[in-house]
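Morning!

This is the sequence you dropped in the shared folder:
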Amino acid sequence: MDKVILIKYGELTTKKGNRNFFIKTLTKNIENKLKNLNIEIEKDLSRMYIHYKEEDELLLINKIHEIFGIHSYHIAYVTNSNIESIKEKLIKTVQLENFKTFKIKVKRSDKSFPKTSVELAPIFGGIVLKNKNNIKVDVNNPDTIIHIEIREKYTYIYYNEYKGLGGYPCGIQGKGLLMLSGGIDSPVAGYLAMKRGIKVEAVYFEAIPHTSLEAREKVITLVNKLKVYSCDIKLHIVPFTKIQEEIYKNVSPNYVITIMRRMMYRIMESLSKKEKAKVIINGESIGQVASQTLSSMYVINNVTNMPVIRPVACLDKLEIIDIAKKIDTYNTSILPYEDCCTVFVPKHPIINPTLEETLKEEAKINYESILKETIDNTFIYKEEKNYENIL
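The structure's back. Tokens below.
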């Protein structure tokens, strides 16, 4: 039986002059995601149709659930746009669906088709009632809605709808660098940033030997889980040991985290300019830890002019955990391997640092040359790379 996946864009249809670009990007992302399947894509400004082989249907549906920019989709039966073909296809398809109550919705995009949508709905409803036992019409709360969409050449019949991820196609907003720590929050922040169309690259700060290779592998696993929702994600690894040790040796303990985060932001700004990224992304959630109070954010953010977005800033921990579980990062994030943000945490970090005091503490270290060395030694992770020389 001829079927297609019928995709509805949702939010993309509000973009007017940019709609073609958005749809073109979505098409490219779908093609990349489904490159190993035998598919053919047709599209217009309101719909996309994916033709596929029947045996690939379940795999195709699973892949579509991982693509941003799709508001909803239907498995649609295709027939010629004449009344007899539509009736014949409707009789066949209702036998394949399980429902007790139904409602008919007709959309007549081809205005030359005889009879209006209002006139056609009861005709098709009568056919369903006649050809399926023990069912009835319920226009208020039906088990299923039978959509009949009549276009110039073909008519599409589909039952109910399946929700997509929504958002914008990955990449339409340009590039952002994600501070990926390995905890619960930052992968969720990366996921939400990608949902708004940002192409994400990850940056991981490690402090070997104070942090372990297991901690790095944990981050690599998180990157691979986020890749499910994106075309690709580069992982930049920052050797943070030297600057972190300088901070720990010279700065007052309660200001260690504040100064450390300021150094990270300086590095992020430099990497963003080098990688032509437009924004820094992190998993800060207001008030969750000492470095994420508004006072701390103000002091830490003071070192950069780059835009910084915090997708989980106003979510509580349980909300973040719910998303982490949904995107399958939670179990990896809770693995007990410390990152450089937790390995040197003092007992009593300052909650409300002042910029004046922060600058005094920062003046205790000659950080500019160390930061340059750190940035110069930052590398992009590759599976085949040999790391023995940095242990």
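Headline: Residues 195 and 312 are 13 Å apart (CA to CA).

More detail when I'm at my desk.
O.
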